[in-house]
Amino acid sequence: MVGQLLGNPVGILDMSCGVKFSLIFVLLRVLFTDSSHSNQVVLLDTTAVLGELGWKTYPMNGWDAITEMDEHNRPIHTFQVCHVMEPNQNNWLRSNWISREAAQKIYVELRFTLRDCNSIPWVSGTCKETFNLFYMETDESHAIKFKPGQYTKIDTIAADESFTQMDLGDRILKLNTEVREVGPITKKGFYLAFQDIGACIALVSVRVYYKKCPFTFRNLATFPDTIPRVDSSSLVEVRGACVKNAEERDTPKLYCGADGDWLVPLGRCVCSVGYEELDGTCLACRPGFYKAFSGNIKCSKCPPHSFSYEESSPLCHCEKGFFRAEKDPPTMACTRPPSPPRNVIFNINETSLFLEWSPPSDTGGRKDLTYNVLCKKCGADPRQCELCGGDLRFVPRPQGLINASVTVLDFTAHANYTFEIESLNGVSELSSFPRPVAAITISTDQGGPSLVGMVRKDWASQNSIALSWQEPEQPTLPVLDYEIKYYEKEHEQLSYSSTRTKAPSVIITGLKPSTRYIFHVRARTSAGYSSYSPKFEYETGDETSDMAADQGQVLVIVTAAVGGFTLLVILTLFFLITGRCQWYIKAKMKSEEKRRAHYQNGHIPFPGIKTYIDPDTYEDPTQAVHEFAKEIDPSRIRIERVIGAGEFGEVCSGRLRTPGKREIPVAIKTLKGGYVERQRRDFLREASIMGQFDHPNIIRLEGVVTKSRPVMIVVEYMENGSLDSFLRKHDGHFTVIQLVGMLRGIASGMKYLSDMGYVHRDLAARNILVNSNLVCKVSDFGLSRVLEDDPEAAYTTSGGKIPIRWTAPEAIAYRKFSSASDAWSYGIVMWEVMSYGERPYWEMSNQDVILSIEEGYRLPAPMGCPVALHQLMLHCWQKERGLRPKFTDIVSFLDKLIRNPSSLLTLVEDIQGLPESPGDVPEYPMFISIGDWLDSIKMSQYKNNFMAAGYTTLDSVSTMSIEDVRRIGVTLIGHQRRIVSSIQTLRLQLLHVQEKGFHV
Ligand code: ADE
Predict the structure, then answer these.
(1) Nearest C-alpha to atom 8 of ligand 1 is from which residue?
(2) Does the CB atom of residue 715 touch ligand 1 within 6 A?
(3) Which of 518, 616, 840, 993 has the most CB atoms in a 10 Å sphere around its CB?
(4) pLDDT of residue 556
């Protein structure tokens, strides 16, 4: 048939044309075999059939089957038909039976060429350009007789727009690809049939396939091959199965789309405990690693003191002697019971026995440390001990103690008690080893009779009481020293202080005025302490009592004043008689008036010390400058360098020549040009103030230049600049004595100022200058002006500009500036000095500083700070300004410390945890107690509640919740709120302090 066609003289399909077909097929095979269709399941591909296809043609001479070999010797099956010249063509070509397999819908892809009738010369109207595609479903797989009527038409297939394309001017046929969908197919298989009705066709390949969503892994789940629905708008929901060693987190799901694509992944699987994910699988954790939870996290190394020998361990086992408490997470290191408490000490009086100990050296690696105290009462034979009866009371309780102390009440006199204290933590119960204890045996008559009888009050002032007593007559052992214990009568249970003395007398200072105190004294011999003397109750004096105490001093002052006045009268008479210096007298009278006005403001002048005069009281400020400052001829000044910038202009260093004297180094403050009168007055105000002072610890004014430009203030030069930056630059370089020397200098300067009635208002390390001999001098004077100049000064709610961190609460709250508020600032300067220029209250905000001061918090001791100095600071920071030390007290206290350097050896770090301050420096008792804190928040009425419930330190209070506050008996909601809110601040502060490495 084909041969006929090829030999056709009309040349419809000539030989060369046949060759061209073959070339195209080779090309196509490459195309076919290279294309991958992972989501297609091929049911038939004529290009892949190696043997005969065995398709049937009806009539026999209609379609022609041609099989040629490609260059790989594989057959190329082609069917051709071309009876274009003959009318009424009806040529059928039928495939073999094709199994449907899982398909519901099949796709038939045809590749063919079709000659367009116009390209064939002399063809008549019989030429067609389409053919028809049919199918028939059947379960019968063996060949059945072909009956065209049994076939269902799928479609009429036409070539696409251009049938042919040109190749080098020659006409070649274009390969068409057409795909048709058939379905749903329900029988086991089907036949395809091609009907030619008079076209010239070469059917190059037939591919039949169906689509599926192929097996896949997604989110650690596998999804099987899935056949899409026939209805292309609905998806098949497929549930995935977790891979080995994985478990469902949320049901893993995918949806199979009509085109064989997986859509919408939902849910997932995760690797089980002991397994970790790697490249879509779950691998076992290696020995030494574990994974305690399912999830896509990695295996972790065993925590300290634990191990795992096997693969895929969900947990690591604890090493011998180490344990994990029930609630410990598997990530936590294994821990062990703590070592016993250390250094048990006691303090006993007639009614209570206070036991205290240091925490164990080894906490076992845990934080849940508690203590149990067991009491045994022993007779003469220490082996015959019995448990103490229920009469004994432990405050707060005998077991589960959080703090390392307990108070024992209601014990019997003349008995021996042994207290065994054990430390416990969350794994103590798990250990089978006996728990080591720290034991102490206490005899309740250990001191024997009191060696001290009557304790007398010799005198009392506002803040001090002097006591004395009879030394014991013929004691069996010599008395080494005496211990005096005292506390406010009202706050008996809250806190007490103690001090020691070798002599049978003591002066106790730092007491509150008009307050009743309880004192009792015991003696210490080489055999230990005696019992305490009975309690003695004495009251401190009020203001009048101090006056009485000072009577002697007053007498001296009066005598001096009378003498001075007499001298003044004589001199005045002399001047009057000589009729000279009228102006001087007037000026003096005027300043005396001012001075009088000043006294009326509350300042009582010190005899022999001038009184400060506020330059603002002068109508003409220039007059004030000239009264207090020397005018310097600018030719005597040589400016050398600019050393800083002040608010009004540059600060320079230079030299000042004075005729007949050596040239001296000076600092020169200049007033920059373009100033207004007010600025000039403000600038010179500082000179008017400084010029009134003459003290080695106050910066000395050399003079002013006001009559020429620039206006200048010339002061002595301080080689080391300001104290704060000097200390920061030399962090840790000085001995404590050197630091105390600096503080003593500042205190002495401040004493001078306060004696003159001058209130500095901006005392801070930045306003102290240091010379080459480490002498510190107070500088920066100017009253309110200095605050404008000070970068630390912030506006308060009342509108004032105040350096909050350095300023006393009453000065912040209602601008009550006084020497007492300067004393507060001095305490802060002490803290700055001892911490080598650390910023007070670190980075806390001003608001938080105010709040925390209000709630009783005070700066902790800087590292390495002697107790005595921190106590002095705390004394300066008393809320009640009248209780703060006067600068004269401060100077003499520091002098004492300098004279007795061993008093500076006890550092705050050394005494932390001890119940009371050491006897060496008793003058300044610590006042940050629960009592003070409650006073500060006006909740003093609850002091007993806190004590009774065992909250004895601010540390323990800081852990309290609102329930705890309720439980101890604070029933009013407003009070609960106030206390809890203050506890929160307290907690923050303690945390802050701990982070900084300081301790309260
Ligand atoms: N900066 C400000 N005043 C100073 C002074 N008197 N000496 C050195 N530096 C200073």
Answers:
(1) 718
(2) yes
(3) 840
(4) 32
Q: Is 451 in the pocket of ligand 1 (CB under 6 A)?
A: no
Residues 6+ apart with CB under 8 A from 896: 903
Q: For position 210, what pLDDT does the model report?
A: 95
* Strands 306-307 and 370-378, sheet pairing: unpaired
- Report d(CA 690, CA 683) in Å as an integer: 12
Per the DSSP assignment, residues forming a β-bridge with 268 are 250
Query: For residue 47, what are the contacts with CB-CB under 8 A and spacing of at least 6?
Result: 28, 29, 32, 33, 76, 77, 205, 207
Phi and psi at 838, nearest 5°, equal: -65, 150
What confidence tens digit (pLDDT) does each residue in 80-124 have? 999 998 888 999 999 999 999 999 999 999 999 998 888 887 777
- Cα(957)–Cα(950) distance, integer angstroms: 10
267 versus 282: which is more confidently predicted?
282
Q: Report pLDDT for 788.
A: 59
Backbone angles phi, psi at 849, to 5 degrees: -65, -50
Kindly report the protein residue whose alpha carbon is nearest to atom 10 of ligand 1. 721
In the chain, % of residues over pLDDT 90: 46
Q: Is the minimum distance from the CB of 643 to ligand 1 under 6 angstroms?
A: yes
Backbone angles phi, psi at 177, to 5 degrees: -125, 125
Alpha carbon nearest to ligand 1 atom 3, residue = 667
> Is residue 56 a contact partner of residue 277, using CB atoms and an 8 Å limit?
no
Residue 106, helix vs strand vs coil: strand
Helix count and strand count (H, E) for the chain: 21, 51
Spatial distance between the Cα atoms of 793 and 803, rounded to a whole number of angstroms: 4
Is residue 762 annotated as a catalytic residue, yes or no? yes
Ligand 1 atom closest to the CA of 699, numbered from 1:
6
Q: pLDDT class for 356, splitting at 50, 70, 90? A: very high
Q: Span 313-323, mean pLDDT?
A: 96
CB atoms within 10 A of CB 130: 16
How many whole angstroms separate alpha carbon 816 and alpha carbon 600? 16
Q: Give the integer Cα–Cα distance in Å for 514 and 103.
A: 106
- Residue to probe by mutation, ligand 1, list 779, 781, 790, most atoms within 8 Å of CB: 779
In this structure, which amino acid lies at residue 622? T
CB–CB of 133/180 below 8 Å?
A: yes
Tokens 């009424």 belong to 88
- Ligand 1 nearest atom to the CA of residue 719, by list position: 8
Tell the residue number behind the tokens 């895929």, with chain if given.
312
Summarize pLDDT for 216-253 with one digit per residue, the tens.
999 999 999 999 988 877 788 999 999 999 999 888 98
Q: How far apart are CA 274 and CA 247, in angstroms?
A: 12
pLDDT at 382: 63
**What mean pLDDT do residues 331-349 have?**
90
Q: Is 892 in contact with 884 (CB distance < 8 Å)?
A: no
**pTM beyond 0.85, yes or no:** no
Query: Does the annotation place 649 within a ligand binding site?
Result: yes
- The encoded tokens of residue 901 equal 């350097």
Closest CA to 264 of 242, 236, 241: 236
* Cα–ligand 1 centroid distance for 664 (angstroms): 14
State how far the Cα of 241 lies from the Cα of 267, in Å rounded to an integer.
11
DSSP 584-651: HHHHHHHHHHHHHHHHHTTPPPPTTS-----GGGSSSHHHHHHHHS-B--GGGEEEEEEEEE-SSSEE
Give the Cα-Cα-Cα angle 893, 997, 980 (nearest 5 degrees).
Answer: 90
